[in-house]
């Protein structure tokens, strides 16, 4: 099906300003973007042309005009990498993980390592990858689980049932990678659960990490 871009003739009720920065303002003398509009716009006429080279599309295929915006690669995407170690996880008690260090964080306002809560700055798809490794060696069939929660509710989980007999070279771990769709303001956190019989601790920070990546 042939696709078109419809160029619009925009009628402004006020005035147009071109700032020294090159920004153009409609209805404002201090434009803050390449095109900054204060007030309303009216689409007076449409003309169909091939739109294959454009990123802004007005599509009337359904007799409605819609605007499709494609994010520039220059926009800041969420990239977070955090580590921790020594956290206590009580027996049979789901425990939210807080992170002792953050190596990468491209959107500081979205991440609070002290609470372990990530808050999506805008709607999008996010890849969450994490690994938790427990320090003590445990007996057979001891349960260790890592959980990703969305808005406080379980979203994805992975478990480990150690059958090593508690040998000195074995340290139970849980690894998980998932993709989640978040609206602006929704949250993600990582939780640990274990059923060894007593409080356990996480191994050192090389073995306990969280990666959050916003997909373009």
UniProtKB/TrEMBL annotation:
Please give the InterPro entries that the UniProt record associates with this protein.
Answer: Tumour_necrosis_fac-like_dom
| Gene3D superfamilies per UniProt | 2.60.120.40
Q: Report keywords, A-Z.
A: Signal
What is the residue range of the signal peptide feature? 1-19
Q: What is this protein called?
A: C1q domain protein
């Amino acid at each position: 099906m042939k696709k078109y871009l419809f160029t619009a003739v925009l009628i402004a009720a006020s005035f147009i300003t071109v700032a020294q920065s090159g920004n153009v303002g409609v209805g404002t003398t201090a434009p803050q973007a390449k095109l900054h509009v204060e007030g309303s716009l009216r689409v007076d006429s449409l003309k169909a042309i091939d739109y294959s080279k454009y990123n802004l599309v007005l599509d009337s295929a359904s007799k409605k005009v819609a605007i499709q915006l494609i994010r520039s690669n220059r926009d800041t995407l969420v990239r977070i990498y955090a580590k921790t170690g020594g956290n206590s996880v009580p027996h049979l008690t789901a425990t939210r993980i807080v992170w002792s260090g953050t190596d990468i964080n491209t959107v500081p306002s979205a991440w609070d390592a002290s609470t372990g809560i990530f808050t999506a700055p805008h709607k999008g798809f996010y890849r969450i990858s994490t690994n938790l490794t427990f320090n003590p060696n445990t007996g057979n069939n001891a349960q260790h689980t890592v959980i990703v929660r969305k808005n406080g509710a379980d979203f994805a989980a992975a478990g480990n049932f150690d059958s090593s007999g508690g040998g000195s070279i074995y340290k139970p771990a849980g690894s998980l990678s998932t993709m989640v769709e978040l609206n602006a303001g929704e949250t993600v956190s990582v939780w640990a659960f274990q059923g060894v019989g007593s409080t356990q601790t996480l191994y050192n920070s090389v073995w306990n990490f969280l990666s959050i990546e916003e997909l373009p």
